[in-house]
Automatic annotation (TrEMBL):
Keywords: Cytoplasm, Hydrolase, RNA-binding, tRNA-binding. It comes from the Bacteria. It comes from Undibacterium oligocarboniphilum. Catalyzes the release of premature peptidyl moieties from peptidyl-tRNA molecules trapped in stalled 50S ribosomal subunits, and thus maintains levels of free tRNAs and 50S ribosomes. Hydrolyzes ribosome-free peptidyl-tRNAs (with 1 or more amino acids incorporated), which drop off the ribosome during protein synthesis, or as a result of ribosome stalling. Monomer. Its EC number is 3.1.1.29. This is Peptidyl-tRNA hydrolase. Signal peptide: none annotated. The record marks 11 as: Discriminates between blocked and unblocked aminoacyl-tRNA. The keyword Transmembrane helix does not apply.
Amino acid sequence: MSIRLIVGLGNPGPEYEQTRHNAGFWLVDQFPVSLQRDKNFNALVGKTRIAGEEVWLLEPQTFMNRSGQSVGAICRFYKITPDQILVVHDELDMLPGVAKLKKGGSSGGHNGLKDITSALGTQDYWRLRIGIGHPRTLNLNQGVADFVLHRPRKEEQPLIDEAIAKSMDVLPLLVAGEFAEAMTRLHTSAK
């Protein structure tokens, strides 16, 4: 098995573009592909080639907590199985600059993952977690909802960008089905 669909999670609209919750969109936006609005999937959709294989790119245009609508629709239409999906999302439990891969597991309170799990009927899909830090860990007096819906501080943004760049480097391994090697490379370069 290999990855056939990369889903970047975020919230649509210019007011959310620069917010931490849009880290998944930021990674998908690194591809030199113009995503097109697709009403059938309620998403921005594109196709690219990675490691010689065609891979779908998806940015749901629902709000975060309804991401499963878009993911479920495109998976049903193109017969993409859960183990062929990579969902890229912001991760509160990791510091900015860290990116980690995992397959399955709980949503960790992430509403986008909860909705995707519900739509797919399983937790057994790949996740690429982009660390954004937690307001407590970063000594900020801010609630989680407020924190994820604000832009990173200027010292955090370059770290998040670096984690996205490291993640882009291992995508060819994921598409080639070399999951263990991708995890080793990404996690050993993590701080």
